[in-house]
Structure of Phosphoribosylformylglycinamidine synthase subunit PurS:
Amino acid sequence: MGRVVVEVMPKPEILDPQGKAVVGALPRLGFTQFTGVRQGKRFELEVDGEVTPEILEQARKAAEEVLSNPIIEDIVAVTDASADAGTAPVAQRAGLA
Amino acid sequence: MGRVVVEVMPKPEILDPQGKAVVGALPRLGFTQFTGVRQGKRFELEVDGEVTPEILEQARKAAEEVLSNPIIEDIVAVTDASADAGTAPVAQRAGLA
């Protein structure tokens, strides 16, 4: 089973209220090192077979047309994450299942 | 300027309505290759200096305590992304600014 990961972030000039809320909360909770936080989205797209260059191209197109709003967001990365995935779901990979 | 990226995904056993909506929309829009979609979050934490092992450890702690809900979410990755970042904002890195 293949997996493509798509990462989307708000454009730098766009206000990011969720990130602002987090950066305001961190120092109150003892995390004083972080000067800025931006919050974006991470999608995992599963495919039945291998992630071919065609699939990756389709994922890139889906990222532009469906998974992001190009007015306010940037696509940061579209990557074949099948190697990370193996056949195990995310939680098992992270040893947390 | 350093940057730490934190990636958070809903646990596999947790219903993910946003992912479900996307996987339902994709075939209608011509993307028939994708059998499953999960939607999670991606945070960029900025620090003034370099990303030291201590900073990375603090980011890991912040990921557990502030950026994710351990009941329903897994932390997939906490990585030093300073090398990707340089001094340029995300959009410039992606060549989209």
